[in-house]
Every structure is written in structure tokens, then in C-alpha cells.
Amino acid sequence: MAAQFRKSEPLKATISPDLRPTKPEVSCDYCTGTKLKALKSCLVCLTSYCETHLEPHQRVAALKKHKLIDPVKNLEYRMCQKHERPLELFCRTDQMLVCRLYTDKDHKNHDTVPPEEECEEKKTQIKKTEGDIQQMIQERLEKVQEIKLSVQTSKRDAERDISDSVQVFTALVRSIERSQAELIEVIEEKQKAAEKQAEGLIL
Predict the structure, then answer these.
(1) Model's pTM, two decimal places?
(2) Which pLDDT score, from 0 to 100, does residue 50 have?
């Protein structure tokens, strides 16, 4: 059965692209009229910029110090409500974004990293998990295929056994019928012989 399975076409397990999360498109906050796609968001300005409007952040010395991240919506949620500072670090101990003032006080001895680093680690974990899930799906599909082949083999064996049984019983019935006919013939011959003998005695 294993050999049959190896010969069969390999099964492929994939997670539909529709089920994968997609990044929402963020528009430039400075564009008037047709809004262009934002290239970066600034955590200091709390504004998202397209390539053209981002240019001052790359040229002006004071703006170069601003924290730029991949474009995100609702930038106000990336600000610390208590200290009104950007949430620049991720606290692994408490699993939350924090500003630098929090790391000096409430999260002083906690394991903190830049959000980008945590994001990359989470992406790696997600890819590994997805790989594990894909492997599990593949194994389940292979098991299902193996069960189907086993059922087919069992069905063929059952059909063969039924056919063999029918042949054996048909031959047995024929043998019994033949023996019955022979027995009847012997009995009838004995009866005829007995009748002849009786007739001879009477005459």
C-alpha cells in the first residue's frame, strides 16, 4: 500500500492568499486633491507622508531626528497617552508598546526592543507556525489518501472473497445435487430389483 501511495501524485497543501493579513493602504496627510500613497509615517509629527512631502524629513537637520516608520493609520495610537511621547519600544515582558520614559520607570528592568525587531521576530514565528501548519495539513492529506487507498484495497479483497465463496458454494451445491441424483437412482434401482424379486416369488 505504501508503494501505491508513493506512486500517486503528491498532494499540495496551501493556505489561501485571501486568509493572509494585508497591510491597509495609508494616504499622505499633506496631499490635497488626489491623495498619494504614504511612504512613511512620522511618530513625532503624527503625520504620514508621500515621497514628495517626506523630502524635508530627509533634508532638514531637525526633521532628520524624527522617528520614521512604515506608514500606519491612526498614528495617535502610536503615542503614549501618559507622556505624550512616541511609543518607540516594545516591552516583551508586558507585551506592549511603551515610550522611553516608561522604560526609565515602570518598565525599567523589562526586556525592551525596537518595535521593528519584535515585528521581524513575530514574522519569523508566524512563518514557522505557517510552515508547521502546512506540514500538518500535508500529513493529514496524505493520511486521508492512505485511508482511501486502504478502503479501495479492502473493497477489492472483499469482492474477490465474495466471488470465491460463490464459486465454492456453487460447486458444493452442484456436488450435492449430483450425489442426490445418484442416491435417488440407486434407491430406485433397488426398488425395481425388490419388485422383480417379489413378482418372482408370487409367480
Answers:
(1) 0.45
(2) 94
Rounded Cα gap, residues 4 and 145, in angstroms: 10
Q: 68 - beta bridge partners?
A: 42
Instruction: Determine the distance from the C-alpha atom of residue 71 to the mean position of all C-alpha atoms in its chain, rounded to a whole number.
Output: 31
Question: pLDDT digit string (tens) for 167-176?
Answer: 999 999 999 9
The label of the residue with cell 413378482 reads 199
Is 67 within a domain?
yes
For residue 194, what are the contacts with CB-CB under 8 A and spacing of at least 6?
A: none
Q: Which domain does 66 fall in, by range? A: 24-78
Tell me the CA distances in angstroms from 145 to 9, 32, 116, 131, 196, one per residue in order. Answer: 10, 59, 43, 21, 76
DSSP 35-92: PPBPSEEETTTTEEE-HHHHHHHHHSHHHHTS-EES--S-GGGGB-TTT--B--EEET
pLDDT over threshold 80, residue 15: no
Q: What is the pLDDT of residues 46-62, one digit of tens each?
A: 889 999 999 999 999 99
69 located within any domain? yes
| Cell numbers that stand for 86 in this block | 512616541
* Tally of domains within the chain: 1
* 92-99 contacts, C-beta under 8 A, 24 or more apart: 92/118
In a domain, 32, yes or no: yes
Distance CA 40, CA 17 (A): 26
